[in-house]
Amino acid sequence: MSFSMLLSLAPLVAGCAGGGAGSDEVFTPSPAMVDVMLRVEDVPGADKRIWHEYGVYLTGCSYPEKVFNSLVSSPREGLRNTTAEYDVGDSTVYETLVPQVVESGRGGQLGLIRESLSSCDGREMEPYHATMRTSSGRVEAFSVLSDAGLPGVVAGYSSVVTADDGAQVTIQRIFVPILTEGDKSGLLSLAAVTEGGDPGSPTPMELLDPALERAGAIIDLSVDVAPTTVPSDQAAVPSEPTAVTLGPTARSG
After folding, report:
1. pTM
2. 144-174 burial by CB neighbour count: b if 16+ within 10 A, else e?
3. Closest by alpha carbon to 101, among 110, 93, 92?
4. Closest CA to 69 of 85, 86, 52
């Protein structure tokens, strides 16, 4: 089964643009946002870049991604939450940048993300429905990234989705607190979805330095990474924009 058949390549994106399932609408970010995100040449093997408004959902451990995708960014110089998608052979790479997070306490939303990732650590679960197109039974084995050689403030996960027919997809994603212009706090996410049971190349960790450089950002090492209580039903998240599913046609061009 080819990778194009395995992956839906149609992640759920949160958007305000009135599109629906199979929408052909293409989001165009502001020039200021384009300037602070990875270029095609920054992602080894990439041949194109496609833009999505807001973020992507990639795992059945959905709560941390709901928190991340519902973050509010203070409008500044045309910068707003944006995702860039890159085709890299048998992998798809995603960069999502929230330039300036609006929150009551510094690092509070990252704390929610980190704690909810921990609640899924070691679990097997139903994967996010758009991860794999095969109709056979699927299970996602989820684990928190603990040995990525990254600063302790960086949160992340690795998971493998396996179907009854043996097809597999590997997902890796990291969430990174950042500072721009010295004191403006934001969040950066890098992810890779790859055919097979092993991480692809480049990994999110390998893309972190060039992503920080493009964003003019540094890792915010001052955030509090103490555990945060996650609601037992993992349902109480901030309001998020209307969710739409983009069909494969939205990836063309």
Report:
1. 0.81
2. bbeebebeebbbbbbbbbbbeeebbbbbbbb
3. 110
4. 52
pLDDT in tens, 132-170: 877 678 999 999 987 667 788 899 999 999 999 899 999
Q: Hunting for tokens 């690092």 — which residue is that?
A: 107
Give helix 62-69 / helix 108-120 axis angle, nearest 10°: 160
Span 158-208, pLDDT tens digits: 999 999 989 999 999 999 999 988 888 899 999 999 999 999 899 999 999
DSSP state of 136: S
- The structure tokens 């983009």 sit at 246
Q: H or E element: which one contains 173? A: strand 168-180
* Distance, CA of 249 to chain centre: 21
Cβ partners under 8 Å of residue 6, min gap 6: 132, 133, 134, 167, 169, 195
**Is the Cβ–Cβ distance between 246 and 130 less than 8 Å?**
no
Q: Of 3, 43, 5, 28, nearest to 250 (Cα)?
A: 28
Residue found by looking up tokens 């149609």 in the block = 10
Q: How far apart are CA 130 and CA 127, in angstroms?
A: 8
